[in-house]
Amino acid sequence: MTSPLPTSVPSDGTLRIDFVPGPIADRNAPTVAELSAAGAQELAGYVTGDGFAPSGEQATVTDERIASTQTFEQPGRKTKSLSVTYVHNPDDATNNEAYLTLTEGVTGYIVTRYGVPRAQAYAAGDIVDIWPITAGEPIKNWNGANSVHTATQRLFVTGDVVIDAVVA
User: Fold this and answer.
1) What is the pLDDT of residue 103?
2) Of 51, 16, 13, 33, which is closest to residue 128 (Cα–Cα)?
3) What is the CA radius of gyration of the chain?
4) Which of 67, 71, 101, 144 is such that its CA lies 20 to 30 A from the CA of 135?
């Protein structure tokens, strides 16, 4: 039997990235009000094409048995990391909101939504990922001729990341 060819979703313009200062009472079921509360800042318009870099690793627990010549494995601890690179416009605060929002030490959540037009407001039933973070130091980049000014920043993950939370 041949498996069906699934429909794909273009990625251009369909990733929303927000900084939400919190609180979020239940990260498995954030509310529209929590995601759009005062101080929330949409960031995707600032993030460069290759500038959203979530990553993760999972350690391996070895499981050796005296009765076996094989070493077995179990999944171990997970580590999630997040860094962003975004445009930086020091001459215009209204066009530098990512840099001004993600000041070193600020805490909150990075909330991402995939596959829905970025400009569409959050709605009940949306599927989002929630990353509790503390912002590290932003580093201004020099990108050379024919480029724009950017900053790169590590966002330290400070709690359990919830993947595929459903907006209440």
Assistant:
1) 98
2) 16
3) 19
4) 144
**pTM of full prediction above 0.90:** yes
The residue with tokens 């975004």 is: 86
Stated as kind and residue range, the H or E segment containing 81 is strand 71-87
Local structure of 124: helix, strand or coil: coil
Q: What is the DSSP letter of 116?
A: S
- Among 103, 86, 110, 93, smallest CA distance to 21 is for 110
Q: Which two tokens stand for residue 59?
A: 């350690």
Q: Which residues does 7 contact at the CB level (< 8 Å), separation at least 6?
A: none
Helix/strand number for the chain, H first, E second: 2, 8
Cα–Cα dist 15/138, whole Å = 22
Contacts of 15 (CB under 8 A, 6+ apart): 44, 52, 112, 113, 114, 118
User: What is the C-alpha to C-alpha distance for residues 103 and 99, in angstroms, rounded to an integer?
Assistant: 7
pLDDT digits 0-9 by tens, 65-124: 999 999 999 999 999 999 999 999 999 999 999 999 999 999 999 999 999 999 999 999
Query: What is the C-alpha to C-alpha distance for residues 30 and 167, in angstroms, rounded to an integer?
Result: 5
